[in-house]
Specification:
The protein has helices at residues 36-39, 47-67, 87-103, 105-108, 134-140, 154-162, 216-219, 234-237, 245-256, and strands spanning 17-18, 24-25, 40-41, 44-45, 70-74, 115-118, 130-133, 147-153, 165-168, 173-176, 180-181, 185-190, 193-199, 202-203, 209-215, 238-240. The two termini are 29 Å apart. A hairpin with a 5-residue loop joins strand 1 (17-18) and strand 2. It is built from nine helices and 16 strands. By secondary structure, the chain is an alpha+beta fold.
């Protein structure tokens, strides 16, 4: 998607906006009011249309120069699994478990990170085998999510996974809707009841405190209602980091797959 400067006749200017990456953009709406008579005037290309076309071509060249940059080379194709745990979600969670201890070393004070959790809605594409570009990474993680470190009591951690059991109000039936959790977590359900939770092979201790990593969207904004059943303080128990997840993924692939 291109975000273009205002070039069309009759269009109102829109304010410049900034995203978390510091990228400026301006939106031009091209809707039904953009008629053919704006493209041609007396059989000749309209000047505004010509400027727009030149701008699009220029932006396309800039886009390719910035986004088709090789980052690394993956040995295996990591397919997109729609709302299912798989190779790609495992890869992203492994990346978080590998990089976040260093990222949050000042907050952890030597304590381990027990697990990681992501929402499937934040994973939007696949990673190819072979050369991976910046564009591939943006496709996978298009949102401006940042990693967040959470401290939570074991009894509240259990509620996260109990919350994976949902109720279909129309059918009045329960169903299991898991989110992406890391390999350190083992869950057992019996007839939609969570019967056992193990973390790193050990039973979850309801009285112990656990550190885990997730997204600011989940920990601070109630994203996908993943943590909303658990009692914790966003002010005291959550440490956010300004590093975007896609930056973290880019550095991880560059450092481990080159």
């Amino acid at each position: 998607m291109f975000l273009l400067p205002v070039l069309l006749l009759g269009q109102n200017e829109h304010p410049v906006k900034f995203d978390k990456s510091g990228i400026t953009h301006e939106v031009v709406v091209i809707d039904a009011s953009y008629q053919k008579d704006m493209v041609y005037t007396n059989g000749q290309p309209n000047a505004a249309y010509s400027r727009l076309k030149d701008t699009v071509n220029s932006l396309a060249q800039r886009h390719d120069k910035m986004m088709l940059v090789p980052v690394g080379t993956l040995p295996n194709f990591l397919p997109y699994h729609n709302n299912q745990r798989g190779q790609l979600s495992n890869f992203l969670l492994d990346m978080m478990m590998d990089t976040c201890p260093t990222l949050f070393k000042n907050e952890l004070h030597g304590q381990p990170i027990s697990f990681a959790i992501l929402n499937f809605g934040g994973i939007r594409s696949q990673l190819p085998s072979g050369v991976v570009t910046k564009l591939d990474i943006y496709d996978v993680l298009p949102f401006d999510n940042t990693p967040a470190l959470v401290r939570m009591k074991g009894s509240e951690v259990r509620k996260i996974f109990e919350n994976f059991v949902k109720l279909d109000s129309k059918k009045n039936e329960k169903f299991l809707k898991e989110e992406a959790y890391s390999r350190q977590v083992e869950l057992t359900y019996d007839n939609f009841v969570l019967t056992d939770v193990k973390i790193a092979g050990k039973p979850l201790d309801p009285e112990a405190y656990y550190w885990f990593v997730t997204l600011d969207f989940i920990a601070l904004n109630g994203g996908d209602a993943i943590l909303t059943s658990s009692n914790y303080s966003p002010d005291k128990d959550v440490h956010a980091c300004p590093t975007l997840m896609r930056w973290l993924l880019e550095d991880y692939i560059r450092n481990h797959y080159n």
